[in-house]
């Protein structure tokens, strides 16, 4: 056996080997020799590899097996090294009668992956992520990932007693020499910390394998949030960006119902300073927007980007709302009202911001459809606060704000406050009166319907009815009134209208209660003993 071949491995080390032995097993070496000019008889032939996976360690391990041609115990580490270098070197069985077929030896070792301990699985993954990319697309990676996903699923399904380190079933599936501790093995997130040492590319492969093997996607989304938080604390800026973009893409690929709104806002806080791609930013905003009704006020108070004068990033909130309403028909009335309540709180927070433009404020106030709010008191209060801070608005800008209020959804207290509010023009008080009249008409219709059904309701005071009728006429000549001198009259009229609304509401409630009692009593009277009911009285 001669040393007639000099091999430079990635610039790390130079090996002198037998050309015939190595070329009989390695197709790549054979090709290099054929392509090289005939070497001098006095000098060994030289070849160099610059990207051999596993480097000098893997090459030495391979040559030992080629020379000795005997089976040795294949540990997880040697399996990973040999598997990757075998593919790279285009290894064969040597074309000779041998006691050991290298490829079959590697294949046999792969069959033992289900019996590896948890710590060996994790170390193998770390080894694979450092090897040549071809290894990540081979059967080795698939088998390791399949074993990993199976163990996570099995540990999630068993009871805490079974998953105890003292359990024989637990010891059979997971070697207690692994990094799992007694403290964290009894909950479903026991494996999170073990995998944060892997790079984003490997995490992507792991997660896609988990999804394929039906691992709980709620658990996967929690792990992704944990992984990004860990990366943000330990990685460099470029690694943080890569991690954030990978995590966002993976979250976007999961079932939307399995990703929490809280977790998404955590991703947003980390990624906001990393200048992630527009595509990833859009995906993240879309995911948050679809869950907008589940957010909290603290979630929405995102600081404005550097270079802007505003306190909060209102443009981001508007984009959230756009995503939330993108498929409006799929949003329930409960979700819309939850979003409306959240936006009312947000408006109250941003209204005092002296740098917030009026058009942005109006856009926030009018972003949701009218059915998202039962009351517009909060919008009126926010506008009142905004006008208190922004005293230099033009008449046109103010009118756009006033149009954001649905005056029919203002309470009596808000209408009363509006009538005496000098920041609002008198015509808005007129509109408030109109809304009160609309409520009066609705209540009067309800009273009439109750009269028809009961036939024995207390007679209303004719003078009051006349006053209601007369009150409905006060708006007909509103345009002829000098608004600048009629504020006090409007305030007085509005208070009268409020009293009428309250009186009618009281009468309606009383009549409804009487009808309910009469209906109940009528059902308890048998047909043979039935007699006319007594006349209801007020």
TrEMBL record:
Gene Ontology biological process terms, A to Z: protein ubiquitination
InterPro entries cross-referenced by the UniProt entry: BTB/POZ_dom, NPH3/RPT2-like, NPH3_dom
Pathway note: Protein modification; protein ubiquitination
Origin: domain of life: Eukaryota
Domain NPH3: 189-439
Chain intervals for the UniProt region annotation (Disordered): 516-538
Keywords: Ubl conjugation pathway
Pfam families per UniProt: NPH3
Domain (BTB): residue spans on this chain: 3-69
Keyword Nuclease: no
Similarity annotation: Belongs to the NPH3 family.
PANTHER family: OS12G0117600 PROTEIN (PTHR32370)
Descriptive protein name: (wild Malaysian banana) hypothetical protein
Natural source organism: Musa acuminata subsp. malaccensis (Wild banana)
């Amino acid at each position: 056996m001669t040393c007639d071949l000099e091999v430079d491995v990635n610039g790390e080390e130079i090996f002198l080997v037998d050309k015939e032995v190595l070329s009989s097993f390695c197709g790549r070496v054979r090709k290099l020799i054929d392509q090289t000019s005939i070497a001098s008889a006095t000098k060994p032939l030289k070849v160099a590899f610059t990207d051999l996976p596993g480097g000098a360690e893997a090459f030495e391990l391979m040559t030992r097996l080629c020379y000795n041609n005997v089976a040795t115990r294949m540990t997880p580490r040697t399996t990973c090294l040999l598997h990757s270098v075998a593919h790279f070197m285009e290894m064969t069985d040597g074309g000779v009668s041998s006691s050991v077929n290298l490829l079959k030896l590697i294949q046999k070792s792969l069959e033992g992956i289900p019996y590896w301990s948890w710590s060996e699985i994790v170390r193998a993954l770390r080894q694979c992520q450092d090897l040549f990319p071809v290894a990540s697309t081979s059967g080795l990676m698939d088998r390791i990932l399949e074993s990993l996903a199976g163990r996570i699923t099995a540990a999630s399904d068993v009871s805490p007693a079974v998953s105890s380190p003292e359990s024989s079933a637990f010891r059979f599936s997971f070697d207690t020499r692994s990094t799992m501790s007694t403290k964290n093995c009894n909950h479903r997130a026991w494996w999170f910390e073990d995998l944060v040492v892997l790079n984003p590319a490997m995490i992507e492969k792991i997660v896609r394998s988990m999804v394929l093997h039906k691992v709980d996607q709620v658990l996967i989304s929690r792990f992704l949030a944990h992984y990004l938080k860990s990366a943000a604390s330990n990685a460099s800026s470029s690694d943080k960006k890569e991690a954030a973009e990978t995590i966002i893409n993976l979250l976007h690929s999961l079932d939307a119902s399995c990703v929490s709104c809280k977790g998404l806002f955590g991703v947003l806080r980390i990624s906001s300073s990393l200048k992630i791609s527009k595509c990833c930013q859009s995906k993240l905003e879309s995911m948050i927007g679809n869950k907008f009704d589940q957010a909290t006020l603290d979630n929405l108070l995102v600081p404005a980007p550097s270079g802007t004068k505003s306190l909060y990033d209102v443009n981001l909130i508007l984009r959230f709302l756009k995503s939330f309403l993108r498929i409006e028909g799929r949003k329930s009335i409960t979700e819309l009202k939850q979003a409306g309540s959240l936006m009312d709180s947000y408006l109250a927070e941003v209204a005092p911001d002296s740098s917030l433009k009026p058009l942005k404020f109006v856009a926030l106030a009018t972003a949701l459809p009218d059915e998202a709010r039962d009351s517009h008191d909060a919008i009126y209060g926010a506008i009142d606060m905004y006008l208190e801070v922004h005293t230099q608005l033009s008449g046109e800008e103010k009118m756009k704000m006033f149009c954001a209020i649905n005056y029919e959804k203002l309470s009596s207290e808000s209408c009363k406050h509006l009538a005496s509010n000098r920041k609002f023009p008198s015509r808005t008080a007129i509109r408030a009166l109109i809304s009160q009249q609309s409520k009066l008409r609705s209540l009067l219709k309800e009273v009439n319907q109750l009269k028809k059904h009961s036939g024995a309701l207390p007679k209303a005071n004719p003078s009051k009815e006349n006053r209601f009728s007369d009150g409905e006429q006060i708006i007909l000549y509103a345009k002829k009134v000098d608004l600048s001198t009629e504020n006090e009259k409007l305030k007085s009229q509005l208070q009268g209208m409020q009293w009428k609304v309250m009186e009618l509401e009281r009468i309606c409630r009383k009549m409804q209660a009487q009808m309910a009692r009469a209906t109940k009593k009528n059902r308890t009277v048998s047909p043979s003993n039935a007699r006319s009911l007594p006349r209801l009285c007020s």
